[in-house]
Every structure is written in C-alpha cells, then in structure tokens.
C-alpha cells in the first residue's frame, strides 16, 4: 500500500467536546450549533471524506456558530460509511464513485428547507472542506439560495460549466497541496476572470498542505498556526461580508 498522497494525518488528534447537538432532518442526520442569540443568518458546513462526525468538522461548526450563525453540518453520505484513515488508498476511486461531491443537490435542498422553515433563516452561506470544497463549488453554480460560499481545497475539475458562479465564492488553497497543483489554481483564476459575473476570490496559503484549515488549535504546528488562523479569519470575513 502506497503512502496516502491526499489525506492528512488524522492519527494525532485531541478529543473534542462539541457545543452543539444532533438533529434528524427528513432522511438525514445533522450536527447543529446555534449562537447564544437570535439570528436569521445560517451557514451550512460540508464535511470532507471523513464525514459529519469527524471532530475537526464539528469544531468548525462550533466556530462559525460562535461568530453568530446558526451552523449545520448534515451527513452528506446519508448514513453510509465515511472514508477511514485505515482504509486502503487503492480503494479510494471506487469509494468516490458512490460518494460523488457533485451529487449533493437533494441533500442541500432538504437542509435549506429546514433552515428556512424550522430555524427562520433568511440568508444562508456555505463552507466546505476538501470533498466538501468540491461540493460547495458545484452548489455555487447550481443553487441560487446560497448567498455566499467558501470552498477550501476542493479539487478543481476543468470544464466550461464550472465558472459561472451564481453568488460570491471564495477559494482557499494550500501551496503544498499534493492533490491540487498551482497550474489548476491559475487555470481556475483565468477562467473565472472570463466567465464569472459575481465577486470571487482565490487565495493560496504559503507552505500549507491539504486539509490545513480545519485543524483544532491543539493539533496545529507552530509554523502553520498563523496561516491556519488567517485562512479561518478569511473564511469568516467572506461569510460576514455577504451573509
């Protein structure tokens, strides 16, 4: 088995006590955290391949809620097994076939309906990491109900249909990401300049690898910490600007 070229090390992780709780939404389960005051603004967090129970993702949900948003992370894998760090990398393409980040429209609609009808949300943003970053890119092309999006290191698949974003979208990348070459990032920038009619932003963080932005504070290396914190601030600022 070759070394994992794509997934960051999930071994050394501290325990995380979550601030929110789990809720059923139609056929989905979701983790939700609310701020301490009333708000009609919400954010959907799209998990990576490790799924909606992964502590790092729940940490991000709690972080967004702390900034004043009803924040929810639904199980986009619909109860099926997430990828595990013990799984074999050769099986990843097959696993991806049944976990397609472009097939999230129905789940997004279910969650949007819940946020509007049950939580009183009027403006809804979305942020997604890795697998979730690809899902966010897709949804920002398809779903006008999402006021703004942040896609963190979602692999960029090139086609002419990928650039006509409906609402403001921010793309975050790590400079040392094994899965996303700088060429792909330059191409994205080029095509967005040509086709995109709404505000967008692309930013590459020096020295950072895939998955860098969702580490919990106690799991950060000192040399990465400033970039991780900057990426998170940038993500929150983008949402605050538009949602």
Automatic annotation (TrEMBL):
Its main location: cytoplasm. It holds the Pfam family DLH. It is found in: Cytoplasm, Cytosol. SUPFAM superfamilies: alpha/beta-Hydrolases. GO terms for molecular function: hydrolase activity. One of its GO terms (cellular component) is cytosol. Belongs to the dienelactone hydrolase family. This is Carboxymethylenebutenolidase homolog. It comes from Lanius ludovicianus (Loggerhead shrike).
């Amino acid at each position: 088995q070759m070394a994992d070229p794509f997934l960051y090390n999930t071994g050394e992780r501290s325990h995380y006590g979550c601030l929110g709780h789990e809720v059923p939404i139609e056929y989905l389960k979701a983790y939700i955290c609310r701020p301490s005051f009333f708000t009609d603004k919400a954010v959907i967090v799209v998990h990576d391949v490790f799924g909606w129970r992964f502590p790092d993702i729940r940490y991000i949900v709690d972080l967004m809620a702390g900034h004043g948003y009803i924040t929810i992370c639904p199980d986009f894998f619909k109860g099926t097994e997430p990828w595990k760090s013990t799984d074999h990398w050769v099986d990843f393409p097959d696993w991806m076939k049944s976990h397609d980040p472009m097939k999230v429209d129905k789940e997004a609609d279910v969650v949007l309906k819940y946020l509007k009808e049950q939580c009183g949300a009027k403006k809804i943003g979305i942020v997604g990491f890795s697998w979730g970053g690809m899902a966010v890119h897709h949804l920002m092309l398809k779903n006008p109900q999402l006021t703004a999006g942040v896609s963190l290191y979602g692999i960029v698949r090139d086609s002419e249909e990928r650039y006509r974003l409906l609402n403001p979208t921010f793309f975050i990348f790590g400079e040392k990401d094994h899965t996303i070459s700088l060429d792909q990032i330059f191409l994205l920038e080029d095509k967005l300049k040509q086709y995109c009619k709404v505000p967008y932003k692309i930013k590459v963080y020096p020295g950072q690898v895939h998955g860098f932005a969702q580490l919990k504070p106690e799991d950060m290396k000192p040399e990465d910490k400033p970039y991780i914190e900057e990426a998170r601030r940038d993500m929150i600022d983008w949402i605050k600007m538009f949602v």
